[in-house]
Automatic annotation (TrEMBL):
Organism (species): Andreesenia angusta
MF-aspect GO terms: ABC-type phosphonate transporter activity; ATP binding; ATP hydrolysis activity
GO cellular component: membrane
One Pfam family recorded for the sequence: ABC_tran
KW Transmembrane (keyword) present: no
Annotated TM spans: none
InterPro entries, per database record: AAA+_ATPase (IPR003593), ABC_transporter-like_ATP-bd (IPR003439), ABC_transporter-like_CS (IPR017871), ABC_transpr_PhnC (IPR012693), MetN_ABC_transporter-like (IPR050086), P-loop_NTPase (IPR027417)
SUPFAM superfamilies assigned: P-loop containing nucleoside triphosphate hydrolases (SSF52540)
Domain called ABC transporter: residue spans: 6-246
Keywords: ATP-binding, Cell membrane, Membrane, Nucleotide-binding, Phosphonate transport, Translocase, Transport
Protein name: Glutamine transport ATP-binding protein GlnQ
């Protein structure tokens, strides 16, 4: 089987007159950990939202394991691609375990996922995910009462329950203090490595990109400025990437 899991081909996306992504192409292989870096407004979130099929491109194609993303129904796509967004998409009033089980939403009816009565097998599944992220004891708590770092872990546990092959994360740790951010990233990358998942994440910190990712893609003005193994990244590329626009 081919190692290619994701192929992005000449994707363009405009918002009004703003060209957000311009004919961007990228191929990702199974097990890669790709960090998207670049200045604010460079198109990182837009790219992730396109891959996650939350928005549609103006032109170009995205293939998941060789099949066009448009050919997947929601349930089939949820088995392939999972996403953690900056706002985490947790339901604050619900208990931790119910948020975690929302990872099975694609298998369930929406109503069933909101029923607070949790069936034993599903409970075990959620608890084992919460155990992996180190907050099993919090499972009955109301999610809004948890700290930012703990909520990040709930979102990770939900992703474990969804169990997609490709994990997309949009600035997954930008709201955390450095110690917790490293904690969450190290957890995320070790889970990805152990389970042979593919990880594509936008990351605001070059230091974290270096520490936790194998490949780094620099975006600027909706174009790929560079794409290289993380260990090859030098100050030169970073200077160009983050330099202010002149002329
Ligand atoms: P990044 O995540 O790298 O900061 P984004 O992908 O969020 O960048 O945004 C890239 C560009 O597209 C920005 O100029 C932003 O203003 C614009 N943009 C993104 N989403 C929208 C939207 N829903 N409506 C209008 N413009 C948008
Ligand atoms: Mg963004």
């Amino acid at each position: 089987m081919s190692r290619e899991v994701l192929r992005i081909e000449n994707i363009s996306k405009n918002y009004g007159k703003i060209e957000t992504l311009s004919s961007l192409s990228l191929v990702v292989e199974r097990g890669e950990m790709v960090a998207l870096i670049g200045p604010s407004g460079s198109g990182k979130s837009t790219l992730l939202n396109l891959i996650g099929h939350l928005i549609a491109a103006d032109s170009g194609n995205i293939y998941v394991e060789g099949k066009s993303i448009d050919e997947f129904n929601n349930r089939a796509l949820a088995k392939k691609i999972g996403m953690v967004r900056q706002n985490l998409d947790l339901v604050p009033q619900l208990s931790v375990i119910n948020n975690v089980l929302a990872g099975k939403l694609s298998d369930w009816s929406f109503i069933k996922s909101l029923v607070s009565l949790v069936f034993p097998m599903e409970k075990e599944l959620a608890l084992s995910a919460l155990r992996k992220v180190g907050i099993e004891d919090k499972y009955t708590q109301q999610t809004s009462k948890l700290s930012g770092g703990e909520q990040q872990r709930v979102a990770l546990a939900r992703l474990l329950v969804q169990n997609p092959d490709i994990v997309l994360a949009d600035e997954p740790v930008s709201s955390l203090d450095p110690a917790r951010a490293e904690d969450v990233l190290s957890l995320m990358s070790s889970i990805a490595r152990e389970e042979n998942k593919t990880l594509v994440a936008s990351i605001h910190s070059v230091e974290y990109a270096r520490k936790f990712f194998t490949r780094v893609v620099g975006l600027r003005n909706g174009r790929i400025e560079f794409d290289m193994p993380t260990e090859k990244l030098t100050e030169r590329e970073l200077q160009i990437l983050y330099s202010l626009e002149v002329g």
